[in-house]
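Hi R.,

As promised, here are both runs. First protein below:
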Amino acid sequence: MLKFQGTYTTLIATFEDFILLVYTIIDDLYQQFVPTSVLNRRNVGTAKLSDLEIITLSICSELIGIDSENAWYSFVKRN
């Protein structure tokens, strides 16, 4: 499990910083908890997006309150 220190703060200045922060946290958790059967599944190399990228985009859209994929795509294009 991730351990956060009480004195640690992160300044999120832009939306890109927010996504990078979420990606970093997801990466740490993914490497720690994903079973090897998922990591070594077939056709991983042919995917256009990695599991980490898909999970990060899904979580970011939910965190800012967008439930629709079309609305999320429009929001990302605008910002």
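And here is the second one, sequence first, then its structure tokens:
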Amino acid sequence: MEREGALSQKTREKIKVKKPKQYKVIMHNDDYTSMQFVIEVLVRIFNKKLEEAEKIMLDVHKAGKGIAGIYSYDIAMTKVNTAMGWAKEEGFPFKLSVEEV
């Protein structure tokens, strides 16, 4: 019996849990989506504080893109789909993409 216990202890030690891959959500600039809408998306969907949302919005405006956040794949895609759906409802061609970190 002791031998089985030692074997399963050894087996448990070999199992390593991998952290899920992380993905950054990137917002892209366009000439039509309002700065206020981008800020609202960052606050409501990406849970950013107003000051941080304004900084990210300015990055998007000046550099052409900005990082809205870094998440696991499922969360990143859910946030992207929610934001792009809302943008479509509002008539904005707002674009987001996801890249592995």
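A quick note on the second one: Helices lie at 2-14, 35-44, 50-63, 73-90. Let me know what you think.

Best,
J.
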